[in-house]
Structure prediction request, 465 residues.
Amino acid sequence: MSKNLRTFLNELAQKYLEEIVEVDREVDPRFELTSIAAKLEKQGKSPVIFFRKVKGSRLPAVINVCASYERMALALGTTVQNLAEEYAKRERSPIPVKEVGSAPVKEVVIKGEDVDLGILPIPTHNELDAGPYISAGPTVMKDPDTGALNMGLYRLQVQGKDELGLFINPANHGYLIGERYRELGRKMEVAVVIGHHPALLLASVSKLEGFGGEYEVAGALIQEPLEVIKGETVDIMVPAQAEIVIEGEVDPEVKRPEGPFGEWPHYYTGTGDRWFIKVKAITMRRDAIYQTVFGAHNEHNVIGAVPRMGSLLRRVKGALPTVKAVNLPLSGGGRAICYISLKKRSDGEPKQAAFAALSAETDIKFVVLVDDDIDVFNEQEVLWAVATRFQADKDLIIMPYCLGAHLNPSAYDITRLKHGVMETKLILDATKPAPPTPFPPKADVPKEMLDKIELEKYLKPFSGL
Ligand SMILES: Cc1cc2nc3c(=O)[nH]c(=O)nc-3n(C[C@H](O)[C@H](O)[C@H](O)COP(=O)(O)O)c2cc1C
Ligand SMILES: [Mn+2]
Prediction:
C-alpha cells in the first residue's frame, strides 16, 4: 500500500505508542487545540496529538506529526545521526511520479458554490494570529515556461469561505513563479495538499536547484513513486493519497492585507499585502484527517530544519566534497545559523563551503566553519573551536545587503529605515590552518589507554578515610 499519513500514524503507534496521544473531548480550534500542544511542549514533550472532535467540523485533526527529529528519522527509516546524510542521499536520486486513475482524495468532491473552507477544522494557533491558518498545506503550482510542478510550504490565512491569503517569501520559487504569471498577464492555478506522509511536507521545504522537483523528492523520501491524479478544476497533478486537496487560482495582480502569524523565529512577522487564492474545489477522503503544523513552536522549527539540513549537506558537499557534516541548530530557529565541518586540505577552502551554504538557502545569516574533529551537533564544541581557532580580524567576513530571511524581525530594506528582505551575512572560519602549518594538538589522555579502561574494574564505592 502506498505510503500516506495513515500508514505513518499506524507505524508510529505500532513502534512507539507513547509518541501519539488522542483527545476525545471536543476542543475549540481557536487556541484550545494548540494550547494543549503548547502545555505539553513546555513540559518538554511533543507527541503527535490526534483530536477526534473539533468544534464546528465533522473532521478530526492532528498536530505535531513532524515535531521531533526522532519521528522524522522514523519517517525515513533511519536514525537521527544519519538523518541529514540519508536525506541528502535520497534527494540525489529523485523518483518520477506515478499517475493513477482513481484516488482516495477524490472520495468527496466539492465545487463552485458549495465550497466552504468552514467545513475544515482549521486552528487559530497563536494569540495574535490574524485568524485560522492552514499551516501544513504545501502549495503546488506550474512554472508557465517549462511546465514543471513546484511545491512549497506557505502559510495560508482563511479570509472567507473560499479565499485563502497566500504568503510567499520573495526569495522562494513560488514567488518567482507567481511574478512570472503576472508578467504574462495570466492567473496562476494552484493546489494545496493537506495530510500526507511526512515526506511530502519535508520535500516541500527541500532546497532544490531551479523550479520544481519536489514531488520526485517526496517519492525518493518514501522510496516509491508518489501517486498523483489529475486535479478536478486545475491542470495540476495532485497527490492521490492526500487527505484533502484545495484547488484554486491566484490573480497575481491583486494583493491584500495578510498576517500577522507566529513564525519560525517565534515572533509575529510577515504582515503585509499578499496574493490570495480563490478556491474552486475541495476534494477529500470521506473521513479525512485534517493536519496542522504548530506555528512558532517546536514542530515549525523541526520541519524547517530537517529538509534544509539534507539539502545543504548535498549542495555544500557538491561544492566541496571534503565537507563532513552540516547542522542548522534549533538555537537559530533551525534556519538562521549554520555549522559546517570539513576535512580541510587548503587554506581558504572553508569559505567555499560557506558560500555554497549561503547560496543554497537565503534564511542562513551566520555560518561557522569547523574542522572535522568538531561535532557540529554539539554547540559546546563548536564554540570551543571559535574560542581557540578563530581570530576576528582575519577569520570573519561580513556581507551586508544580502537577500535574507524576510521573516526575521531584524531584516531590513534597501533604505535601512524599514523592515525588508535583506540581512547581513556573517562567516566565521574557526578551522585550523591547513597542513603543514603547525597547530597544537588537543590535550587528552592517550586514546589506546582510554579504550582499554573498563571502569567497573577500577571503581568501588568510597569506603571512608
Ligand atoms: C512550517 C513551515 C512554514 C513555512 N511557511 C512559509 C511561508 O509562509 N512562506 C514562505 O515563503 N515559506 C514558508 N516556508 C518555507 C518554504 O516552504 C521553503 O522555503 C520552500 O523551500 C519554498 O519552496 P520554493 O522555493 O519551491 O517556493 C515554511 C516552512 C515551514 C517548515
Ligand atoms: Mn521549488
The chain has a mean pLDDT of 98. Residues 135, 150, 152-155, 167-169, 172-174, 204-205, 207, 293, 300, 303-304 surround flavin mononucleotide (ligand 1) (CB under 6 Å).
